[in-house]
Give the backbone structure.
Amino acid sequence: MLVKQVPDPEAIVKVKSDSELEIENKYFTNFFDEIAIEAGLKLKEKFGGKVTVLTVDNKKVDALRRGIAMGADDAIQITDPALEGSDQFAIAKALAAYLKDKPFDLILAGRQAMDDDAGIVGPAVAELLGIPHVNTIIGLEVDDPKKEVKVLREVEGGKEILSCSLPALFTCQKGLNNPRIPQVMNVMKAMKTQIKKVDLAALGLNAADAGSQAAKIKVQKYLSSPKRPPVKMIKEDFPENVKSLVKLLKEEAKVI
Amino acid sequence: MPNEIWVLAEQREGKVRKVTFELLSASAEFSEKTGFQVGAIVLGSGLQEAVKSLSPFADKIYLMDDPALASYTSDTYLINMAPFIKEHRPSVLLGGATSTGKDLFPRLAMHLQTGYAPDCTGLNIEENGNLIAKRPLYGGKVFAEMIFSEARPQMATVRNNTFLVNQNLNKSAQVIAISSHTDPPSLKKKIVGLEKAAGTKLDITEAEVVVAAGRGIKAPENFKILEELADALNASVGTTRAIVDEGWRDQKDQIGKSGKNISAKLYMAFGISGAIHHVLGIGTCKTVVAVDTDPNALIFNYADYGIVGDLFQIIPALTEELKKALKE
């Protein structure tokens, strides 16, 4: 399971300067990653096997501890000063370098991380490993003896059912399951669990493969989100208020 | 030298998606600035109708018409597009931030070792062909202007309804047929079924008008009045996380951080308090209307027009009033 610690949806995020953001120190495990962890744990309960949670982060490992508390067996942190300023492609390279010689059947990740909202790392890891991927799944059924999976994916105007050989990578969407809340005992245990650290050299990567100098895309400038003008409250009584609204939509906003 | 702007034309059963025309219209403007030609790349099976509808919007159409490409999978698209892109190295490759675009583009960008800006809400190009992509971060709390390294193409997916369709381009595209190479046995995944959603409504990410209700609607059967309003406006119906978690509406209709971001021309929220999870999903809508019984509801801070009132009274009256107005 590929996981990440991200700012809580309630956290305040503001533009400090063209090149810097101010982020309130309120983090949680990426919501979609918890869905991925839950999906992995459900498969483990059914078929056996081992669940490993994996993150690329130099500081924050609480998403790994959350994974352990929920029931994952192992936690790996890829960490290296050279990773600072990496784009999603460099993160994917580090993950793929770690995974390439591991005996996995399935890699699960969230649909996207709720910070950069990019949704790049999952499919990019699949590309580097040469395995199929399916994005934003809302259903997952494994036929273990056949090493085949059926997944359900939401598309515009319906749902696609795909069959896919293993190993594969899927990104998980809300609707797939409801992530379990870990028991307090397990949370305590997770706090003490040893997290294995891996650096770029151990993965056979150079510092030049990561960081901002390797980035294919970068932020030129941060912008505050555009503010809507103050709301115009329509204060007449019913049904005049409805008539006024239609008139405003037609003549002022010109949207109907 | 890379000197073309390409748009991945998305089509289903020969009908090209609106977002494709939006992107081709924007590309036509970029073309004037840079002198680059605009190419639409279209994959599928039985594409005569698609070619006909694309022709006025592009200088070139790169066509891969093959039964093996009838439905999208990242495998078939990647195998066919990647060598062709490598050979021609367009300067820019754009697609819709759709279920296809978001599935294909990150993998294709990794394969091509080039930059990709996902889910953009604005694009600009400099005269030298450098693309500047504007995209929301942290669910839309802030935005960033992204720039690309020297690698080409510069790839981006763009949200529906970001650009207007220009019906007056009057181009007549040169159609270039490309041979496809798909070896079905080598494919590791295939589509084995499609459950079509009931009704004919557009997805909330594609619709120009979206109407939504939250807890104020009180019961699942009450969505009927909202459906009637939607019919009058040719709108799609959205909802909030709370309603989806109750099981009253499908996940696909959820607006907000754990659901979908919409960029509708008109969004109307009824009985929605305006939790941050929800309003982050409507930040790029053009006009927002909010109706709620609570005068202090947060939703009014994110709306252009507000009415404090009872949705059970307002929605049916609004439906009638809009029917009248739209007839005029």
About this structure: The CA atoms of residues 141 and 285 of chain B lie 14 Å apart. Chain B is about 25% helix and 30% strand. The mean pLDDT of chain B is 95.
